[in-house]
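Reminder: ligand-aware prediction takes two inputs, not one.
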Amino acid sequence: MPDKKHEGLRPETLAVAHGYDPEMGMWSAKPPIFMTSTFVYPSAQYAKDVHEAFFDNSGPLKGSTHHIYARLGHPGLDFLETRLAAIDGAEAAAAFASGMAAQSAIALAFMRPGDSMIHGRPIYGGVDMLYNQTLTEFGATAEAYLDGTDEVEVRRAAKAAMARGPLKLIVAETPANPTAAIVDLELMVRLADEIGAEQGHRPLVVVDNTFLGPFAQRPIELGVDLNMTSLTKYCGGHSDLLAGGVTGRAELIEKLRYQRVVWGSHLDPFTSWLLLRSIESVAVRMERAMQNAQKVAEFLVSHPKVAGVTYLGFLKEGTRQREVFNRQCKAAGSTFSFHLHGGEAEAFRMLDGIKLIKLAVSLGGSETLICHSASTTHYAVTPEKRLEGGITDGTMRLSVGLEHVDDLIADLAQALEAV
Ligand code: PLP
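Here is what comes back for the chain with pyridoxal-5'-phosphate:
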């Protein structure tokens, strides 16, 4: 549903104005929720033509927006996907029931038994499980690169993967969960082109943009093929829904929509509506969260009980990571890790002393959340792999929210006293 009158508008404006036109919803200023599982056809022939249009992209109703059944698509998804694609500057978008549903659809659409893929480390535990456990049961293999800014290391991983089978996916979670480690997207795109020429089939570069979201990092503009985001996080923004989105070229997104139809992982009408509403404010919410995060990180980095803070704003000038950050990211985000002196016992003492901040997994909500990575989000990752990714037993992940920053710092200060 391209809307010519919005051409040239900035992503912040598109996030508010694009995807729904009041004419589509009986002039309701905000999109209605079409709470239905199925859609009526005006005649039997029309029903046949709609199915032909949907499954074969042909016939008299080719290009029709008439829906069939909510698992195959519904108006709320149309509004949301049109908006997501426009914000990212992509041709098309597909929204899913969760970020993992989105990532699984990518894996299932583009990998086959015998294929290989590479990903960074650290990486979100669920994505790690998908590629290193579930997909291996289907005969595919995964290889990790340990520094996504180091060309030699990424090439080593790609070579090792290709020795086992055709390389189909280059997955870059950047910044990575939980340490905010950076992956160089320009390098990944260049490598994909090179490998494509070598193996006769270009691997897709897939970015997980969950940590920075659609405004602080714009992967499609950097030439990646698929930009995946857990919309559960900053875009949802209130820790009250689960959703995932992928943007990219229409021909790739079409394949993901097919996965969604067969695996039943579409996003429902109410959650689609909630997201449309939340996305309107994500740029502003992130601005405030990022201001808070900088102050919280500055407090933590000079605290005697803290061994280190992996906040992106602290990347040292002159380092490779800083150079990539400057080139690739527009801001430092509001989720990062800090490492306590000591291990699990010290971490647990601190967490049990927190009063305002909530002890919970997830990130990107209006409230500040803290968790101990090794025992929660990365529980299923082996201790060796966790260490490779910079996650120690004293690593805590903090997602800074919208509270008054002085209250957050006071809470952390009193909890650190217990360590
Ligand atoms: N990618 C990253 C970086 C995440 O942090 C998460 C969840 O924490 C996911 C993907 C999965 O998203 P969801 O929980 O919406 O399935």
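The pocket of pyridoxal-5'-phosphate is lined by residues 98-100, 124, 126-127, 173, 177, 208, 210, 230, 232, 242, 244 (CB under 6 Å). The chain has a mean pLDDT of 96. We will return to this case in the review session.
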